[in-house]
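S1.2 Input.
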Amino acid sequence: MSAEKKELFSEKVRAGSRTYFFDVKEATSGSKYLVISESRKVGESREHNRVMVFEEDIQSFSEGLQKAAGFIQK
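S1.3 Output.
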């Protein structure tokens, strides 16, 4: 079972038929983590995907994301 306890921050981004959620949560142990969720309509239902990035990995994840976004925006 998940150790999710407290939501510290949430941002919702609508992009066409998709909705993205960026949630910072705090586990019972006190460590923070980022949950990136995607929701999109598929036929009559909705499909959901999630990625969890833990506090110790956030710097590397952020750097990789910035590089990828920079490449796309060129």
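S1.4 Remarks. The longest strand covers residues 4-15.
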